[in-house]
Design brief:
With 73 residues, the protein is mainly alpha-helical. It is built from three helices and no strands. It is 74% helix and 0% strand. Helix 1 runs antiparallel to helix 3.
Length: 73
Amino acid sequence: MGFMLIFIAIIFFSLGILSKRNPTWGWRANEAWKIKGDSEPSGAYIDDMKFRGSVSILFGSFFLVCGLLVIFL
């Protein structure tokens, strides 16, 4: 059980870091197809993705701590 929590933590960390460092990474696949012509993501979208990355890193920290507690206690 503890190793599964650590695995989930690694996934959350990875997605959070990707979202923080490159917030426009998935924009074309998720949002660009809805808009006609060439466009770029808005500042609000970029800020939202950076916030989601921070939350994901926070969840990853929680799962990591829980996984380590399960393994060592």
